[in-house]
Amino acid sequence: MKKLLSLKNVVISIAILILIWQILFSVSSYNKALFPSPKMAFDALLEMIDNGRLFENIRTSMYRFCIGYLSSVIVAVVLGLILGRIPKVFRYVNPALQLLRPISPTAWMPFIVLLFGIGDVPAIVIIFIAAFFPVLLSTVSAVGNIDPIYLKVSKNFGIKQPSLTWKVIFPAAFPQIANGIHLALGTAWIFLVAGEMVGAQSGLGYQIIDARNNIRADILLATILVIGVIGILLDGILKLIEKAVMKSWGGAV
Amino acid sequence: MYIEIKDACKNYVQDGKEFTALDHVSLNIEKGEFICLLGPSGCGKSTLLNALAGFERVSGGSVKIDGKEVTAPSINNITIFQNYGLLPWRNVLRNVELGLESKKVPKEKRAEIAKKYLELVGLSGYEKRYPKQLSGGQQQRVAIARGLAVDPDIIFMDEPFGALDAITRMKLQEDILRISREEKKTIIFVTHDIEEAVFLADRIVVMMADPGRIKSVVKVPLGDHRDRTSENFLYVRDKIFDLFNMKSNEYIEYII
After folding, report:
1. pTM of the model
2. Rounded to a whole number, what is the largest CA-CA distance in chain A?
3. B90 and chain A: CB distance < 8 Å anywhere?
4. Domain tally, chain A
5. Which of A208, B72, B83, B124 would you call most buried, defined as having the most Cβ atoms within 10 angstroms of its Cβ?
6. Do A150 and B87 count as a contact with CB atoms less than 8 A apart?
7. Is residue A108 in some structural domain?
8. Do A57 and A164 lie in a common domain?
9. Environment class of residue B18 by beta-carbon count within 10 Å: exposed (0-12), middle (13-18) or buried (19+)?
10. Mean pLDDT for back-to-back runs of 10 residues, chain A (253 residues)
11. A156 vs B75: CB contact, 8 Å cut-off?
12. Which whole-number Å values give the CA distances from B131 to B1, B91, B142, in the listed order?
């Protein structure tokens, strides 16, 4: 029942969005080629599905996204688990992190393109950077927030590294780490598009640039919608994975 | 002497003020004894327990178990905490197996031992449950089973029943008394509940606060089967009540 209700919410919410778009289209005096209607964008979507470009670009983008995001999450979690356990070292690492964190990953773009050229790598690096800081910082803080009793019990029962990290610290910190991983997903997906707009000749981000160059606003809007839908799907998949992990850990903590 | 505490001192600085948690505390404990450390908060009973369990070092004097200075927690001496310390992401069986894993006990043997102790604490059939599906009393039983499973020499209990309701607490007191006789463990039990101490202890170490010190050590000659309503029980209890009202700072060994 709850699921059904939320489905109803989704349908109505999106219908309203399309309606506003349609109204704006009807009342505005812009050239149709510059500000297309929902119907035109939908036709452009069908056209892209038909000629195979859409799925080609989705595949390219997803490949970059998965590599960039997963490697970032793994590196950041491992590093966070280590740094979280040695606060003395983290006190020296943290200022540098705080300096780097507010820099938009796209600011690195020219530098990355200079170093790696155009292609898969710049987009992957951008995604890596975008996901890295939220995951690292949430992991460090999660490890610091572990209930000390778990560590006391572990000490008492002779649990030593690396078992301590795997059996106690990671599961105890997991809910908060998962939060960071979840937040980072959205951020990383946002920056995939930015990365591909500048540093690539393929993918969804590039498709936006390409549509602009060809003055195909209908394709541009259709692509934007696709990016949004994939973002929602990724979020949903991650939620399912989180739920599965939590369930196998007894709906822990 | 099995456990030997000699001139133990512990000072804390709290809000810039020095605070003496333990002031030259000395105590000897025999193997197999059930000792209750009884006193109001701030009397240093938990500090003393933590020093014995190896979680904290004393700042002066010595704390020895079996002739060896205590420097760190050991799997031979298990502590049971007030808030249980179960790992919520493990089911009951896997919680009880925790210590056996670091003892490198093979998998089937672990489950066998864990089930045996779950039966001992009356939780057979709860193996697959998770801690948060259990009541507080059941969770503490799991923690006790987990402690017993590694076959420790000493069990330290830090106000283990403090978070439980009165009826559950009494039931668990009876069980821990039975288990202590069956398993023949040395138990050191921290409490601020006089009746609990009289019900459980072979000897009650009465402590006073500010500075934390031992006021007296009272033998409880009530045997293995204790009845809270019996005359002897009430007599001992009254003695302890008296002790808390006395102004004397002398160290008295009571023999009743």
Report:
1. 0.84
2. 75
3. yes
4. 2
5. A208
6. yes
7. yes
8. yes
9. exposed
10. 71 93 90 88 92 92 95 97 93 94 89 88 93 95 94 94 92 92 92 87 91 91 93 92 84 52
11. yes
12. 39, 7, 9
